[in-house]
Amino acid sequence: MVGDPETRFDAIQAAVAAAFPIQEVGFLDGRPAFTIQPGPDVKERFLRLRRDLEPLEVLPLLREREGKTVILLVARPPAGRTEWALPLGLFLATLVTTLIAGAINTSGGGSVAHLIGSGLAFSLSLMAILVCHEMGHKVVSIRRGIDASLPFFIPMVPIPGLGSGTLGAVILTRSPAPNRDALIELGASGPIAGFIAAIPFLIYGAAHSSVVARSALVSPVCSFSSPRLVDFLVNWLLHPDPSSGVIFHPVLFAGWFGLLVTAINLLPASMLDGGHVMRALFGSRVHLVLSIAAAGVAWYFRYWPMAVLILLLLRRGHPGPLDDISPPTAGHIAMAAALVVIFALSAVPLDVTCQ
């Protein structure tokens, strides 16, 4: 690190000049700014500049301003310390709450051993899906040099009927994604990993669920809508007729919740996974419009707390990637398109009827 301010600025300017031809030096939005000539390979050059500026404790932002390409400088946030105690404690607490939720939502009750077994089947399956989702984000953050925390799982008081014992998990990012490709990867990796992880649990759970006549069901019975993927697997593996009901195996119930978490995260709003992807594809203005639309979709699907949260976060916006100019590759656009399919297979209205 260079201590003297003038010497430090000279080092920063030299690093920028080594990456791009500088046309003008000044200030913009109260920050040091370099008007540059982008030239070819701008994405790769910017990544090298980002690495070169790390010892100087600044981050470059590549932006378009009034028809010019500029590099703005912001202070590099201090590297976060990896904290283990709180994430581990929340993980263990969520294991307990999901186990209780799986037990109390077991159809027909049963012995204590049966309830514990059902609770474990539900809890371990759901937690495995959520861990894969969050580790998808974590792996991308490490690969792309994004400073991110370990996942924080969110336990919830188990609710009879449809409670899962958890509100999912979050990873806190302390530094922006380097470019649009990385932002798409950061947003898409969790839903893709979680969706893929859910498939074997859904297949196993559907195969071990029971088809019974509706007249044989013991009250109270709760019925709820299912995602398209769950409906497909149940019809494919069990062939229930319209007059029958399906009693979900706890593992299928866990997969159902795993798809619900995936769908909620894919809403194209704010700092949700879908919001990251839409911000990378379409920029800040479209991201704002999509966030408002996503709040409406969340309300329609009865994700009421999420709809309110999205509206509350509208003013915060999205910081975007460091390089907000270089377009995403065709492969990353295809990755984003795959999320539309995943959302269509995973989304389900929270329509629960108990009688």
UniProtKB/TrEMBL annotation:
Belongs to the peptidase M50B family. Keywords: Hydrolase, Membrane, Protease, Transit peptide, Transmembrane, Transmembrane helix. GO terms for molecular function: peptidase activity. The keyword Transmembrane applies. One of its GO terms (biological process) is proteolysis. Pfam families: Peptidase_M50. GO terms for cellular component: membrane. Its cofactor is Zn(2+). This is Site-2 protease family protein. Signal peptide: none annotated. The chain crosses the membrane at residues 84-105, 111-131, 152-172, 184-204, 211-227, 247-267, 288-313, 333-352. It comes from Candidatus Segetimicrobium genomatis. Residues 121-300 form the Peptidase M50 domain. PANTHER family: ZINC METALLOPROTEASE EGY1 (PTHR31412), ZINC METALLOPROTEASE EGY1, CHLOROPLASTIC-RELATED (PTHR31412:SF0). InterPro entries: EGY1-like, Peptidase_M50. The lineage of its organism: Bacteria, Bacillati, Candidatus Sysuimicrobiota, Candidatus Sysuimicrobiia, Candidatus Sysuimicrobiales. It is found in: Membrane. It is a multi-pass membrane protein.
